[in-house]
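Worked example

This section walks through a single chain of length 85. The input is the sequence exactly as stored; nothing has been trimmed or padded.
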Amino acid sequence: MAYQATPLEVKVPFSFKAGTSLLPAGTYRVTKTGSGCILIQSDKMGVFVPMGAVVVDMDGTGGKSTLKFDRDGDTYVLQGVHSER
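Given that input, the structure is written out below as tokens.
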């Protein structure tokens, strides 16, 4: 069975690019998988993003979570995922 950390729940008030996918504003669960990816999932959809595409600092304890975005023109691009212990 693959390792799966406790999901982080985050609200993103704008659409954003994660890897090669464009995701709408909404509430997401972010989970680190054991296959070298993170899963970004809403009630309607989910995408796997390679951990090399974003900086991932998740300890799985469910502390305060933040996502870091950069702006590229009119598009926000996910750059990092962080959870505090």
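What to look for: The longest strand covers residues 75-83.
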